[in-house]
UniProtKB/TrEMBL annotation, chains A, B:
EC number annotated for this UniProt entry: 4.2.3.4
Lineage: Bacteria, Pseudomonadati, Pseudomonadota, Gammaproteobacteria, Cellvibrionales
The organism of origin for this protein: Microbulbifer okhotskensis
Family as reported in the entry's similarity comment: Belongs to the sugar phosphate cyclases superfamily. Dehydroquinate synthase family.
Protein name, per record: 3-dehydroquinate synthase
Role noted for this protein: Catalyzes the conversion of 3-deoxy-D-arabino-heptulosonate 7-phosphate (DAHP) to dehydroquinate (DHQ).
Alphabetical keyword list: Amino-acid biosynthesis, Aromatic amino acid biosynthesis, Cobalt, Cytoplasm, Lyase, Metal-binding, NAD, Nucleotide-binding, Zinc
Chief place of localization: cytoplasm
Gene: aroB
Length: 361, 361
């Protein structure tokens, strides 16, 4: 069992990583302050893990479950309202604790519901996908999508605890495991060069789901993310580097329709684009771009723009992304392996070239 | 012109009270940091004041307006989404400033939109009703209603500035002026005995809208509220006294349907109920209850439960109110004039008696 703390003053919280946690109340109970609990999960995860989690929560006088439909397409205000419906119908009060059991979509919606219900209640993350384990469960970003933009409606709301049980990865579809690996590789690229080399060497073992290799990668990603978040909780500056590949990736998701490309799949292609753009700026050489492409290929991830998507439609979509400040397009690029930078002044034509070099029309 | 500060550390902000502000940019501009502004108002207020406010905002390269339907019945997630629609269609980014021009409903929804849009943007309150001037524009509570409860979905999000222009009260319907006076009287009851006597003496002048009398009352209410909020920003304890009369009032609003009784009208009747209950507990004498009834009558406000509403339906509705902690009904009562207390242990029968003494069936 590994334990690390996300240091955010009064909002600090632990991430506990290990296996066999789900049915074991001793990890969970110290972080539930009232006598009411509501588990938010989805129709895919519930049959796998809900019974075990409920087992750990015997003895609460109010234990309710909200089962959401599965997928990014349902990450919206209407679905969010279903959580509020249950909380109010079952009369949960301000002392309730919401537990997110699922991937990033469940975590983001449950967290946002916890941020808004009666202006803020406790919540706990129990992530069940690699992507959620290494990314969305750390950092306090919560929210839903709007038809005109991803994660445009949300709040910063820190969990009280993140309980990362690597057992849940055994049932994860291969496609989602790969999508999660895109975010794992991201940490190597933006801030942890030795980890990038480690991933390169251990990629096949990660794909084989060797527990100790997975646990190591998860812990290292969480530590990297926790460090970045602790330095900039509300994304005034440095925290933006975590969005490496995401501005391009969000454009892919938005144009293809949420859910057709998994988030991590879109980020994978987006990272190649960001790397190619960094190369065009003269900051990194082609060898690194090729190494990334090679890793993504082994992981079964796309390294190119979706078929038929034009460079112009990328730019169109990106201009509504949150990373646009007063009309300037803010991009996260690399100045070297392991060193991300925030760049405001990339010429439009250079962005178009990078996109075309990555298969955009 | 009067100016007072709500002291909340990094989230401190000024309340500027005076007249002739709306068309005068010098009060407003220092608090708008970016180059984008979106005014949120409603169909009733817009014809009266929107042009003047827009005049003060010449020179912004992006100035959009969202005009909402008027009334508590529209204070919900669907209406909120109309604000997000405009912000995204018009490509407002994180540096935008939202300005709430209107009463409490507009302020609560605009503030909540500002809290959630891209996880939080600036906002400014320009309240145009007495209720909003003395109550909802101070304290950072924002949110929307749910069919099962008022203000159940929301956030704490402090404005950057509250600009209180007493000129706006000249066009306020008499019914809304009276509803606002209920909250003015509340401050006397809960924390400011000399102010209670002052209101008793000056009630007719307030109803006559004498500008200097109104300005004095607004400033004193805001100061009282600012003191309470500064001591307890997120309502862990003392801040709850601001809800005096509100638990009963919310029950009236919920059972009668939002919008049929104005918020202040429901709070007026709710305050009589809270006072009657305080009397039954032996803490205050009947003289004070009668004096409040007398003041409310002069102000044209109801001092009784709605016709046909039963004591049982009050309790039914109150048990879902946010003030319920782990099954105990938390009420704000008076232990003396000007001294509110939070009470958890009132017997159910005593509450029923107080409600019946106030006309509930």
């Amino acid at each position: 069992m590994q334990r690390l703390n996300v240091e955010l003053g009064a909002r600090s919280y632990p991430i506990i990583i290990g296996s066999g946690f789900l049915g074991a109340p001793q990890q969970l109970l110290p972080y539930i302050h009232g006598r009411q609990v509501c588990i938010v999960t989805n129709e895919t995860v519930a049959p796998l893990y809900l019974a075990k989690l409920i087992e750990a929560l015997q003895g609460f006088n109010k234990l309710d479950v909200v089962e959401l439909p599965d997928g990014e397409a349902f990450k919206n205000l209407d679905t969010l309202n279903r959580i509020f419906d249950v909380l109010l119908e079952k009369r949960h009060n301000r002392t309730t604790t919401l537990i997110a059991l699922g991937g990033g979509v469940v975590g983001d919606m449950c967290g946002f519901a916890a941020a808004c219900y009666q202006r803020g209640v406790n919540f706990i993350q129990v992530p069940t996908t690699l992507l959620a384990l290494v990314d969305s469960s750390v950092g306090g970003k919560t929210g839903v999508n709007h038809p005109l933009g991803k994660n445009m409606i949300g709040a910063f709301h820190q969990p009280r605890l993140v309980l990362a049980d690597t057992d849940t990865l055994n049932t994860l579809p291969a496609r989602e495991l790969s999508a999660g690996l895109a975010e794992v590789i991201k940490y190597g690229l933006i801030c942890d060069k030795p980890f990038f080399y480690w991933i390169e060497e251990n990629l096949q073992r990660l794909l084989n789901r060797e527990p100790e290799v997975l646990a190591y990668a998860i812990e290292r990603c969480c530590r990297n993310k926790a460090d970045v978040v602790a330095s900039d909780e509300r994304e005034g500056g440095r925290r933006a580097i975590l969005n490496f590949g995401h501005t391009f990736g969000h454009a892919i998701e938005a144009v293809q329709g949420y859910g057709n490309w998994l988030h991590g799949e879109a980020v994978a292609a987006g990272m190649v684009m960001a790397l190619e753009l960094s190369r065009l700026r003269g900051d990194i050489d082609n060898d690194l771009v090729e190494r990334l492409r090679q890793m993504l290929q082994i992981a079964g991830l796309s390294q190119r723009a979706p078929v038929g998507m034009s460079a112009a439609s990328f730019l169109q979509s990106m201009q509504i992304d949150k990373k646009v400040l007063d009309g300037k397009l803010r991009l996260i690029l690399l100045q070297a392996l392991g060193e991300a930078v925030i760049v405001d002044d990339t010429p439009r034509e250079m962005i178009m070239d990078a996109l075309r070099n990555c298969g955009a029309e």
